[in-house]
Here is the input.
Amino acid sequence: MSTYEIRQEAVKPTVPTLFIDLMTFIGTQPHGSLGWFDTFGPREIPPQWEPAAAERLNTHGFSFLELADGSMVVLLNTDVTGAPPAVVFLGSEGEHHTIGNSLEEFLVLWSKGETDVYDLDDEEIEGRASLAAWIKSRKIKTPKAADFDFGAWLAGDTASAAPAAEAAHRQPTADYEKLGPHVRKLVDMMGRRADDEALIDWVTNTLGKKAPKHTSSDSVNVSAPKVGIELVFSHNVRNEKYPPISKSARSFIPYLSYAWIREKIGEPVFGIDVKKGTEADVIKLLGDPDGYEPAFMSDNDPTVAYWHRVVDAAADVVVEIESDDGLGFVVRVMSSLALQEYPVVSTHLFLGWAATRGLLDEIRFAQHADLLAKVKSRQALGSDLLKAALPRGLWDSHLIDKPGLRRTAYQWSHNMAGLWITADLIKIFGSHRGPFGHDDPTVDNDSWENVDKAAPAFEKVFAQWL
Here is the structure.
């Protein structure tokens, strides 16, 4: 059986002795036994990842593990006096985060499958016990080190710009009181910022994990299988009560926004056994399903029964149960789906047309009622409304809540189920090569003349709701 290839390139800064020993060990391990990578060892970080930061990254560190999608794991000197080099992740799409505050901490996390790098944590990887044994044989201990904010380091920030976390207003409902103590505690934590002291204490001392200090990509998962909880921290919760909180020019403080409940939780949810419960049990205790929905966003066949219970009215926290292939239990902050997170002319055209056809939820535009009225009367443009009222883009909840409308709008915006706004508008306006190499409609403004040209395509998609 082949082993991992070891790379021996000369890089600066000097490679630590522990890392040299690690390369020797990795080179003896069967390929695939520690993760889905081929080569291990120091190399320069390609400038394409972040041209503005390439020189600084390579002055302070080096990549030592590259994944199939182009992501890299990097050992980086942090500029903090007395602090050990940290291990950080450079994602193929520009995302980034700290994996470990030291090489030693990274190795321990790797041996447990808890790096938050899928290609190192995948359950099918079977050789991590050998890494754990090597760590034990070397008597490696994790040094004390402050949490390293890689996003702030990249931006050159010396301190967090984020305002201090404030106590959130909570309003537990009658359904909250029907939950067991562990799930109630989870509900209490839901919606809190990752720098909230109570949340940090719970994640650290109850779950035995670490709350992420920041996010750069949309979200970070924290899994605690021994207590039956998997958490999602995200800075992009599409709910006006949860605005993005900048920590630095490149990072955010996330919220605890979503959680899966597993059987190890050790208590029922609304009286339903998490491991052995059936759909009949849920119906007996909660009544008929609140509705049925497709299993995937690209589908339209409603086969999955669901029950939805608000457990904190002020924080918009709900408990959801789904019956598909068995029961699934989720606690989450209610949030919308992005139709167009980064609006373009196509979005402006649709927004103007939707306003004139009564498809916008006017309650969501109450603070801009006068401007909405001008758009409806064609005295202002869809782009004017989006700029003033939708700083985080167009969401499905900005449309009226008629059965199937929001789902169709999402599919149409994301090229699903045979629907795609871009293709529809290319048929009308022609195409040109866009900034990311894809064909875009050749239309550069959302004048009412252009809205009228696009209207037949919009009406064809949304005819049943007009």
